[in-house]
Amino acid sequence: MPLAATGELVAEAAAARTAVAAFNVITLEHVEAVIAGAESAGSPVVLQVSENAVKFRYGRLLPLARAASAAAERASVPVALHLDHVQSDDLLRQAPGAGFSSVMYDAARLPYDENLTATRVAADWAHARGLWIEAELGEVGGKNGEPALDAHAPGARTDPAEARAFVADSGVDALAVAIGSSHAMTTRTAALDHDLLKRLAATLGVPLVLHGSSGVPDDELRAAVAGGITKVNVGTALNLAMTGAVREFLAAHPEAVDSRKYLSVGREAMARTVARLIGVLRA
Questions:
Q1: DSSP string computed for 91-115
Q2: Domain locations in the chain?
Q3: Residue 183 labelled as part of a binding site
């Protein structure tokens, strides 16, 4: 079927008081696994390509984007493409021509006023080209090997009043909020601030996004969705599944040299992870 629009999938999830799962992809095996898992669960899904993934692919967006588009168009469930954690304006401007319906513009590293100014410019540009745009306020730590912020560190949590002003002044369509999760967690031990989430959901009039969801236990994810999260980003969980399956296969078959043998095992492990997590979010 034709590519879906991220904004429409998020709106549908919000209306159903559930969340759409958004998985970060790096290789074609990631793409195929996410779609297979979503088809198994009978659920829409968002394929996300991050700026870091583009850097890994020699700085070229189109090869992975075109592969993802081709796979998505053959899927039996709605699939949208989202460009994630974009800091480069040059990369942002490639999004419309590469099949993306949405982008997460990441200026959260900047002081508030600079974040707002940069995001406003990006939002105006994106909206003029029909793109749905997400931003981040507060800091979801753990990107690029950085440690997660302490729960009480300045800026480590999204302030509801500041967020309300930011959304109004920037014009973004969704906001990623910092409520206790962290990027790149390999253990599922994050404890979310559900009271803060409740206040954010009551204060803001846009969909809320949870980043760093790989480190969040199932019960916490369910509570986050019940509390107002409508888009849940997952990345590291796929890499854990793939790497673990490949390591196990190669340990059992040290003579193996055909990459299809171990990549297929890794792809299947990722697909199972996708289907399971979608089930958690839609329970």
A1: HHTTTGGGT-SEEEE--TTS-HHHH
A2: 6-281
A3: yes
pLDDT, tens digit (0-9, with 9 covering 90-100), for 212-238 = 888 899 999 999 999 999 999 999 999
Backbone angles phi, psi at 262, to 5 degrees: -85, -25
CATH 3.40.47.10, applies to 6-281: no
Per the CB < 8 A criterion, the answer to whether 133 and 85 are in contact is no
pLDDT, tens only, 50-67:
999 999 999 999 999 999
Query: In this structure, is the dihedral angle defined by the CA atoms of residues 111, 114, 117 and 122, taken in order, positive or negative?
Result: negative
Q: For residue 106, say whether it is annotated as part of any ligand binding site.
A: yes
Tell me which amino acid residue 217 is. Answer: P
Q: Which residues are catalytic?
A: 84
Tell me if 85 is assigned to a ligand binding site: yes
The alpha helices in the chain, defined as continuous H runs, are 6-15, 28-41, 51-56, 62-73, 89-92, 112-128, 160-170, 194-203, 218-226, 236-252, 259-281
**In whole angstroms, what is the distance from residue 271 CA to residue 268 CA?**
5
Token output for 87 = 């800091």
Q: Would you say 253 is a known binding-site residue? A: no
DSSP letters of 234-247?
A: E-HHHHHHHHHHHH
